Amino acid sequence: EIALYEKDEAAALVYQQRFLAEASNPAYGNMYKSYICRLESSMKGKGGEVMALAKNEVLERPHPLSYALLAWSNFKNGDTATAVDVLQNHVLRQTEEPIAIYYTGMIFKAAGKNAEAKKYLSMAADAGFELGPVVKREVDEHLAQL
What we know:
By secondary structure, the protein is mainly α.
């Protein structure tokens, strides 16, 4: 994240690849699957893998955070309508975790639900310390557009 924040794309890619290699070690089981899914959702050509990871996460742990990851995966795969449906049925009013709030704001913005997007992105901005500087900067940029 530091490399991304400093806009050092080459270093960020190296660190991401190292993390993916280490976190994918079978000895860790499913411990890092949600992190892998989140990271790979930002990579081109990983849509199918990300969706499979998110669906598996929901099967193993049907928790609002798992569903938030599934909504994010749908969104990143271009299915905003399904993402909104997953949020409304399994995430909203069930968790206040910053990452779920961030996903919600971003998905609502893409869906044209600007009032809701502003509400959730503002909440995510307030949790910027937990989300990290890269996500905080992204949230601030999206809020400025609303």
